[in-house]
Design a protein that fits this description.
Order of helices and strands: HEEEEEEEEEEEEEEEEEEEEEEE
Distance between the termini: 15 Å
Strand order of the largest sheet: 1-2-3-4
Shape: globular
Number of helices: 1
Radius of gyration: 18 Å
Number of strands: 23
């Protein structure tokens, strides 16, 4: 959605973390919580609603009429049945002491939320959005999970320390089964999926393009150099965010 991309580009200048476009609305997360913009006129987005949430909200994903938001420690489900006035449906608060979990990325599959971070992977059930619950926790071999992707009925988990991409089957969404490990040449700031390919890039290492023709045995089909930065795939275009520290401005580059 090019309206969403234009707004993403502008919002990055004003402290928003992530944005999600739904119908004629943009849901933007920030250190303040969640803000809703009406983009019926994309040139003049209008702030129409705000939800204050503690912590720096920087993760967002959608499951039908439910948004899932994440801070470094906490998870929130947001009911957007009325898109102009969303409400907090449920909350999950992770222990921040001792074995606290730092959340980094999240994906949703069949009413389950997969959250990567330190020291591994958390899986939540949102079958009842008002009572999200932790159903599985994985660490051990996969270690710190920097990024995740879901393709077909498979979960792909990247470990930045071993530079490995792990493949899990999701026949049982609550208990993924490890079936493959692929060593890569990427440190992975970003993992994006388009058609039957994964793009693993960032961290000053070459970009890995991984074919998923056989989703149980991913294969690296190309290794190249691409400028590093957080990436987004929209349609058949790859947008990469950059920050110019000298002028304090963020901008985006486009690759076809």
């Amino acid at each position: 959605n090019l309206y969403g991309l234009d707004l993403v580009h502008e919002e990055l200048k004003t402290g928003f973390q992530k944005q999600f476009v739904f119908d004629e609305y943009v849901y933007a997360t920030s250190i303040r919580g969640l803000e809703v913009f009406d983009i019926e006129n994309p040139a003049l987005p209008q702030l129409i609603y705000e939800i204050e949430l503690p912590g720096d909200v920087w993760l967002i994903a959608q499951n039908e009429n439910i948004l899932v938001l994440g801070t470094y420690w906490d998870l929130y489900t947001i009911d957007i049945s009325d898109p102009r006035q969303p409400r907090v449906a449920g909350e999950y608060h992770k222990n921040r002491r001792g074995t606290g979990f730092l959340l980094e990325k999240l994906h949703i599959y069949r009413n389950h939320v997969y959250v990567s971070g330190y020291p591994g992977l958390l899986i939540f059930s949102i079958q009842d959005p008002e009572h999200p619950r932790l159903v599985h926790e994985m660490s051990g071999e996969i270690g710190q999970v920097q990024n995740i992707a879901i393709f077909s009925d498979y979960l792909y988990v990247f470990n930045r320390h071993s530079l490995s991409l792990y493949t899990f089957t999701l026949e049982n969404p609550a208990e993924p089964q490890l079936i493959n490990r692929l060593h890569t040449e990427s440190y992975d700031m970003s993992l994006q999926q388009y058609d039957n390919y994964l793009y693993l890039m960032g961290g000053g290492r070459p970009t890995n393009i991984i074919c998923l023709d056989n989703p149980e045995e991913p294969e690296i089909v190309a290794i190249g150099v691409m400028e590093e930065g957080e990436s987004h795939i929209v349609g058949n275009q790859l947008w990469i965010e950059f920050r110019d520290e000298e002028i304090g401005r963020q901008y985006m580059k486009l690759y076809s």
